[in-house]
UniProtKB/TrEMBL annotation:
<dbReference type="InterPro" id="IPR001789">
    <property type="entry name" value="Sig_transdc_resp-reg_receiver"/>
</dbReference>
<feature type="modified residue" description="4-aspartylphosphate">
    <location>
        <position position="53"/>
    </location>
</feature>
<keyword id="KW-0597">Phosphoprotein</keyword>
<dbReference type="InterPro" id="IPR001867">
    <property type="entry name" value="OmpR/PhoB-type_DNA-bd"/>
</dbReference>
<keyword id="KW-0804">Transcription</keyword>
<dbReference type="GO" id="GO:0000156">
    <property type="term" value="F:phosphorelay response regulator activity"/>
</dbReference>
<dbReference type="InterPro" id="IPR036388">
    <property type="entry name" value="WH-like_DNA-bd_sf"/>
</dbReference>
<protein>
    <submittedName>
        <fullName>Proteobacterial dedicated sortase system response regulator</fullName>
    </submittedName>
</protein>
<dbReference type="GO" id="GO:0006355">
    <property type="term" value="P:regulation of DNA-templated transcription"/>
</dbReference>
<keyword id="KW-0805">Transcription regulation</keyword>
<dbReference type="Pfam" id="PF00486">
    <property type="entry name" value="Trans_reg_C"/>
</dbReference>
<feature type="domain" description="Response regulatory">
    <location>
        <begin position="4"/>
        <end position="120"/>
    </location>
</feature>
<dbReference type="GO" id="GO:0032993">
    <property type="term" value="C:protein-DNA complex"/>
</dbReference>
<keyword id="KW-0902">Two-component regulatory system</keyword>
<keyword id="KW-0238">DNA-binding</keyword>
<dbReference type="GO" id="GO:0005829">
    <property type="term" value="C:cytosol"/>
</dbReference>
<feature type="DNA-binding region" description="OmpR/PhoB-type">
    <location>
        <begin position="133"/>
        <end position="229"/>
    </location>
</feature>
Amino acid sequence: MSKRIAIVEDDPAIRDNYASALQKQGYDVVTYSTRTQAESAFKQRLPDLAVIDIGLHDEIDGGFALCQQLRSLSNTLPIIFFTARDNDYDTICGLRMGADDYLTKDISLPHLLARIAALFRRTALLNQPQSPQDLIHTGDLKMDANRMTVSWKEAPIDLTVTEFWMLHAIAKYAGHVKSRQQLMDESKMVVDDTTITSHIKRIRKKFVETDAQFDRIETVYGMGYRWKSS
C-alpha cells in the first residue's frame, strides 16, 4: 500500500506542483487549502506524513495550530513545515510545535523527496523485529528503537521521530563525539546545521522538564555532540 501524504498549502500552483511530483514517486497524495479542511480530514483519517505551510490564507500561523493538533493525535507521525518564511524564529517555533523538519519553498524537488524518503525510512524501522541492538541502556537512559520509546530515570520522554533518532545516534556511542554529518548519516536525516541545533536544544529541554539537573548531552564546539555516560 502506498504511503499517504497530506499537503496543506493555500497557494494552488505550489500545492498542485508538489502533489504531482509526489504522486509520480508513487505516493498517495491528499491536499487541503485551509487549516479547518485539514483538521476535519485528519480527525477521520491520519496521513502517513504531512507537509504543512505555516501561513494559511488569513491565518498567519495556521500551520502551527494544525501541527499541534496533529501532534495531539500522533506523537510519531512525520510532520514537515513548508514555508516561504526563512528565519530562525519560525524554525525554532516550528520545531517546538513538534515538527520533524522545516523547509523553505525554494528547496529543490529532489531535496524535498530525499527528506520525505528519509522520514519514511525511519518510521519503517518500527515494524522490524526487535533485537538486542534495538535496546540502549546507559545509566538512567533507556531507549527502545523498535517501539521508539525513551525514558530517563524511569520517566517517559516524548520525542518526535527526528528527535528520537538524533538522540539514538548520540547515545549509542556514549562518550564519543558525533559530528553533525555523522548525526545525519546515522539517523538517516537530510537537514541543515540550524535544524540540527534546534533539535538538540529541544531534546535537552524535554529531558530538563523531567530532570532539572539533566546535563548528559554535551556540545563539543567545532566538532559536534556527545552523550556523557557519567
